[in-house]
What does this fold into?
Amino acid sequence: MIEKIIQAVKEAMMPDLTDTQMEKLENVLYIQFHGRKVVEECSELAPTGTDGDVAKINMFLGSKKTTGRADSTLRQYSREIYNMLDFVGKRLEDITAMDLRYYYAVMREKRGIKMSTMQTRIHYLSSFWDFLTLEKLVPNNPVRQIGNLKVSITIKKPFAQEELEALRLHCDRSRDRAMIEFLLATGLRVSEVCQLNVEDIDFYKMEFYVRGKGNKERICLLDDVAKFHLKRYLRERMRKERVGEDLLQMRPLFVTAKAPFSRMTIAGVQYLLKAIGEKTSVENVHPHRFRRTFACDMISRGMPVEQLMVLMGHNKIETTMIYVTVKTSSVCDTYRRLRAG
It folds into this structure.
């Protein structure tokens, strides 16, 4: 009944409201109507234990781990599932689409969660319930009734050449410059950079292998600029760390600036790049933007997207295309060239 009322209100107001206003109206309606009819059902927390919801969650996480999902990804799945359960206060088999709509409406309206983040969190729950229904642990998947969210598309821009030059000029250490050139030349994920050791890099062939998402290994390449700055950084490290070339080979590729020269972490790389960006007028300086810049640069130089997909470690071309921003000027030039022919 409540669903029909909400739907009727939406249909009545649709001609007079924008998409953003419609979304807010729908969220407010779900918040206000929640519990009006099933308040007694929601008043007590259902017990969970190793024989109930917790066991189901552990089975799901175990299945994801066997497919090669990273521990960090498993933690994100687990965090969202438990957050939802704590909020709704029901057993998994009793949770309805209305409960989930209320949960996400509150997250959106009262806690200010971004729509793109909401979409990711809904994806986690959808995957969880798909597993439960496939294993016949619950009767149905309530997430499927929520529908797709309307997410506004924001074009994420790569670095412009003048921004890159500004970043290069504000590198205080050879390590920092080597890091920037390495990211630009390889397009690696920050997690992939942090796992590399010096011995992984074949400077003669200017290539190396990295193990990325899904525990899949792929080849990566270096250019002359990255090679130059990386070798300069490593020569400096031999002096600082007082080790020979043989011993250096067994050490991490990028390390902290001070003793004991430990492997740089993901957070450490992010902090380093952010600090360099703060010295300049360049905004949004983070590792993933270098990956986007690499993808756009390769496409603009004529690399087929199928080959770029391999270098970036993607399984689908659609994923690679998310990273690519095509310049309007390039489109116009190509159009005129083709029409003139």
Q: What stands out?
A: The two ends are 63 Å apart (CA to CA). Residues 60 and 131 are 7 Å apart (CA to CA). The first helix runs from residue 2 to 13. The chain has two domains: 2-145, 161-338.
